[in-house]
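Chapter review: from sequence to fold.
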Amino acid sequence: MGKPVVYGADYSVYVRIVRLVLEEKGVGYELVPVDVFAADGIPGWYFEHQPFGRIPAFEHDGFRLYETGAIARYVDEAFDGPVLQPVGARPRARMNQITGLLDAYAYRAMVWDVAVERLEKTPPDEAVIANGLRQARTALQELSSLKAEGPWLLGTDLTLADLHAAPIIRYFVKAAEGQALLAEFAEIRDWYARIAARAGFAKTEKAE
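The token string follows.
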């Protein structure tokens, strides 16, 4: 099989999720830069890969996909390497619950309302940050309650849930408020330290 192609930007949380899955599977890939915030707008050719102009998009031997969850599951099932999805119905449902929770409730609050608002807006909107932190606290409380015993979110084995959560938390802790809030949740704090120490995490970190 040919080398897969990921379309997107190295700053993107969702592009990084796909890259982390590829790294954990040991699959080489090409990252084709697509900056959806470019001054000239999204390049016209990209809409053939993602008609809504979002990132990432993915291609492998002529097979095209978009939506991070679909790409991550395809990579896990199409390539050799460690299995990143549990077999049982209940643990797989828990994995899907966690990724859904992160998409619906954590991403916007942690990344945009806290990290981006604090670090990239002048002046930042303190009300937006405060609301983001409230939502982030609920998300971290739920992650703590859903986390199984063991080093990873589902227990002894690393899964797509871990790889989905890690880039979101990484962005969140760029802000001092994010670091302080994460520190209140010892299990999630320690989980994050473990995943941040993995080779693929370092390899996909955007150079500042």
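Two observations follow directly from the output. The beta strands are 5-8, 30-33, 57-60, 63-66. The longest helix spans residues 89-120.
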